[in-house]
Write a structure and sequence with these properties.
The complex is a heterodimer of chains A (290) and B (313). Chain A has 290 residues and is mainly α. Helix content of chain A is 73%, strand content 2%. Chain A has a domain at 19-217. Chain A is globular and about 60 Å long. Chain B has 313 residues and is mainly α. Chain B has a domain at 27-237. Helices cover 75% and strands 3% of the residues of chain B. In chain B, 50% of the residues are buried. Classes of the chains: A mainly alpha (290), B mainly alpha (313). The interface between A and B is large, with 46 and 48 residues.
Chain lengths: 290, 313
């Protein structure tokens, strides 16, 4: 039982991170029908920038805010410089542009930060709390708490503020949104900023547990995409459920079956789900128009 | 409509380029790069049938390429199979795998299809990385030379001609397929699946067939690559390699067979040009990828063809 609890703790921790990344995918997808394959690089940027700013002598909270700001700025630049000019290109072209962006960002990070792994100190120490015989790291509580807070804030943003509602309206029907006076292009820019911020927060939260390096964004980005697809692309609850399920599936497989195939399980699971439900678990049920 | 003549001319031109190219290359290193161009082109010509003509994206074809390469490497290296037998077995095995997953995968559309093919490629890459006993794991494994009827095929120059010949064969096959009734069915599918089915095309069957065919192209190219390079690593199955193949065909111009070859050439040469920049290689590579896609979203060949006011097939 203690063992099961232990695997569950680690699964939920990683799952929360996947959920944050998946939310980023969902937000950009809703604003533009674009899959941003550079999403994982925001996760990397968040972790790496925090490490560098903290190493430069800034207090950790300041370094964190600074890193999130850097990621948001990069996200806005990416939208303005690479996505906006190709706004009406085909899906495949846009996928390649964002992959090009991710290779570019990874290259910049490799030059700036080197190829080594970097470690960020845990926010409140490494002394584990024992729960039911299983070890719970304080950082896990940070991950879960901050993720929950972010989800609540996002929910408030999308349901209580005019701006958030305008973003949802754009997601629902861009033409109608433009007709009632919503600046849909600005919504796209904001969605990139928001997704970059979410990615950076995920990267900062997980860095003390898993270490960080210039290339951690590839796998985290792909897993986040898998989580977003698993839950149903564009659905916010789907992204959260997808992320948690994926994290749990991975941790339980690694624990009980084989840690060598831990990374594979996410993709086996996603194929299995897609074969049964071709548009994800909590899909919006939109049908294709002919 | 003259269906055969433009093909003959195009193929002759491509063949002429393949013959003249080695005369212009200063040393064996460039001959190896040229060999890789033709091998990548085989994958791209097949993938272009799926993505460019049938309109179904795949972000996992490097998996099929690597499976072909490892089938040759393991069957000849571990089990002592004859090279051509291993190549054929690899192609058949990859064809069967592709056939097995094609139906459920090709039911998916758009980003879901991208995710499923991407996942398939990553699963293959992980298996190749983990089954160290057979594959040698992340370090890769050496491949014995290809032996055909007792003749050992070794040497960069010889492999250049093998790769060039295989590429011309692949291009000829693809061009003929595109202008055949199944090829027209594929193009109809790209336009509208529902409309294609309404005029009596079995959309699922056509998609499955082209998926399997493109996977077999990739597998054969992978087998040839394994023997040409005499070494394989799991990186050949990686996500970035799959992306590279898709980028090649988009760069050349989707639904253009010669575009696929040109895209393969451009993107095979580019990293060699950038290699001297060491750490800055990836920055420039990413920037070029973004720039080309922003300014030439339809690829090089269709953009040029449009400029010359000629319809390109």
């Amino acid at each position: 039982m203690a063992e099961f609890l232990q695997f569950t703790f680690s699964g939920v921790t990683v799952g929360a991170i996947y959920a944050l990344v998946a939310l980023g995918f969902a937000i950009i997808y809703n604003a533009s029908q674009i899959i941003n394959f550079a999403q994982g690089e925001f996760v990397m940027l968040g972790g790496m920038a925090t490490v560098v700013l903290a190493a430069a002598g800034l207090p950790l909270p300041v370094a964190i805010v600074g890193a999130v700001a850097i990621a948001v700025a990069v996200g806005l630049l990416l939208e303005r410089g690479a996505v906006e000019p190709a706004r009406h290109a085909s899906v495949v072209t846009l996928i390649i542009i964002t992959i090009g962006a991710s290779i570019f960002l990874r290259g910049v990070a490799q030059v700036l930060f080197g190829k080594d792994f970097h470690r960020l100190p845990a926010f409140s120490g490494d002394a584990p709390i024992v729960v039911g015989g299983a070890m719970l790291l304080p950082q896990t509580l940070w991950v879960l708490g901050v993720t929950a807070l972010v989800v609540v804030l996002l929910h408030g943003f999308f349901t209580r503020t005019l701006f958030g509602k305008a973003m949802l309206a754009t997601a629902h029907n861009p033409l109608a949104a433009a007709l009632v006076g919503i600046d849909t292009r600005r919504m796209l820019a904001v969605s990139f900023g928001l997704a970059a911020g979410l990615g950076a927060i995920a990267g900062i939260l997980i860095a003390p547990i898993t270490l960080t390096a210039y290339d951690v964004g590839i796998m985290l980005g792909l897993k986040g995409f898998a989580a977003a697809i698993l839950g149903g692309l564009g659905s916010f609850p789907g992204a959260i459920v997808g992320g948690l399920l994926l994290g749990l599936a991975e941790a339980l497989t690694a624990g009980y079956v084989s840690s060598a195939y831990k990374d594979a399980i996410a993709f086996v699971a996603i194929l299995a789900v897609l074969f049964v439900r071709p548009s994800g678990l909590l899909s919006l049920g939109r049908s294709e128009r002919v | 409509m003259s269906l055969t003549r433009p093909h003959t001319r195009g193929l002759l031109a491509l063949g002429a380029i393949a013959v003249i190219l080695p005369l212009l290359l200063p040393n064996p290193f460039y001959v190896d790069v040229a060999t890789k161009i033709w091998l990548n082109a085989i994958v791209c010509v097949g993938l272009n049938l799926l993505v460019g003509y049938a309109g179904q994206i795949s972000l996992g074809h490097a998996g099929f390429y690597a499976l072909g390469a490892y089938a040759s490497a393991v069957l000849t290296g571990v089990y002592g199979w004859p090279g051509l037998g291993a190549l054929a077995a690899g192609a058949a095995g990859v064809g069967l795998i592709a056939f097995g997953v094609a139906r459920p995968i090709l039911k998916l559309k758009g980003h879901y299809l991208a995710m499923a093919t991407l996942g398939l490629g990553i699963i293959i890459a992980i298996v190749l990385n983990r089954e160290i006993g057979l594959t040698g794991g992340p370090d890769g494994r050496a491949v014995p030379p290809l032996t055909v009827f007792g003749v050992r095929l070794v040497g960069g120059a010889l492999w250049y001609w093998i790769a060039a010949g295989a590429m011309l064969l692949a291009v000829a096959l693809a061009l003929n397929l595109i202008d055949s009734p199944p090829g027209r069915a594929l193009r109809a599918l790209h336009g509208s699946e529902v409309a294609a089915e309404a005029i009596g095309i079995d959309a699922t069957r056509a998609k499955v067939a082209v998926f399997v065919l493109s996977a077999v192209f990739a597998s054969v190219a992978g087998s040839l690559y394994a023997h040409a390079d005499r070494f394989v690593t799991p990186a050949e199955a990686g996500f970035l390699r799959s992306v590279e193949f898709v980028t090649m065909i988009v760069l050349g111009g989707l639904a253009s067979t010669y575009g696929a070859v040109l895209g393969a050439a451009l993107l095979t040469v580019l990293p060699q040009l950038l290699a001297g920049l060491a750490d800055y290689e990836h920055i420039l590579y990413g920037a070029i990828l973004m720039g080309v896609m922003i300014f030439l979203p339809h690829g090089v060949v269709p953009s040029l063809a449009a400029r010359w006011g000629r319809r390109q097939t």
